[in-house]
Amino acid sequence: MRGSLRARSFFSLPCGPRAAVSVERRQHHGRVVSLTRRRRLKPDAASAGRAAAARGRLLVCPTPLGNLEDITLRVLRALRECDVIFAEDTRVTRKLLQHFDIRKPLRSFHERVEAHRVGELREHLDEGKTVAAVTDAGTPGISDPGAALVRTARAHGATVEVLPGPSAALSAIVLSGFECSTFRFDGFPPRKPGERRAYLQALASEQRPVIWFEAPSRVVALLHELAAVLPDRNLFVVREYTKKFEQQLVGTATEIDARLSKPARGEFTLVLAGTARHAAPGDALAASEESGIRAAAGLLRRAGVGVKDVVDALRLITGRSKNSLYRLTLDSSD
């Protein structure tokens, strides 16, 4: 029909990241004409990936607490492939890197330089770089620098990853054998004697285990304060965890103070057992049963039977869980 347009071909040309030019060729009165129009395009997955890469990455890398064999393959790869490493103490981290033959730029990151380093982090992320964050030992951000870096990177739209690895706090609560379905981590207890005593007095009714880190120069004072304020509460102390002279102690604060190597040296992690839950009148039978289990466990322990064998034997008799029997067996040695 005269004046009609018949489509002959259609194709698209790229025109910028979010648009394209559509070119349609048609035949009109025996002549080929081209009609063009723009249409919007949705960003594809590759474009989104490039945008995320442009904002960089922050990798939070746990490091060994004392035994270099505890470092993970993922952390080693992250340290080898990153662009720069932010370290709590560059002298400590440099020894770790030298051991694994890793050569990367090091920048110190601690309280005194936090504001300046946060600005540097933004610059690295803007350039699409990968920044690794490490502390002297353990997982950054747990009573150590690191939280400010995570907040900054996330606010900047960067990718943030925390790699699995060592944590003295979690290891200590498991080693303690205390009931740990819930627990609290309070970092370092107060330093000043008056504040520390008031803090410990407030824990008299705390039913959850409480985990602390403590410096060797203050750990004995903490034990003396615990002996005065909470004399009957069980305590677990691990010194120099994963190192050659690791020491584990369970008992009251007075008992541990008597057995602790003096002068106190090394890194200390402590777990204070939660107070016993008050039994309701209907729980009298359960309380009586626990008392009997403690007595039986005490007899076996005094006869030289190991804790594991005591727990296994009592489990066959009572049908209770290993965790609860382990706790009662430890209580029996008090």
3D architecture notes:
With 334 residues, the protein is α/β, with parallel strands linked by helices. It has four domains: 6-42; 48-162, Tetrapyrrole methylase, N-terminal domain (Cobalt-precorrin-4 Transmethylase, domain 1); 168-272, Methyltransferase, Cobalt-precorrin-4 Transmethylase, Domain 2, CATH 3.30.950.10; 281-332. 40% of the residues lie in helices and 21% in strands. It is built from twelve helices and 13 strands. The strands form three sheets. The protein has a five-stranded parallel sheet with strand order 6-5-7-4-8, sandwiched between helices. Strand 1 (6-14) and strand 2 form a beta hairpin. Helix 11 crosses helix 12 (322-332). The longest helix has 19 residues, at 284-302. It is elongated and about 65 Å long. The model is unreliable at 1-25, 32-52 and 278-285 (pLDDT under 50).
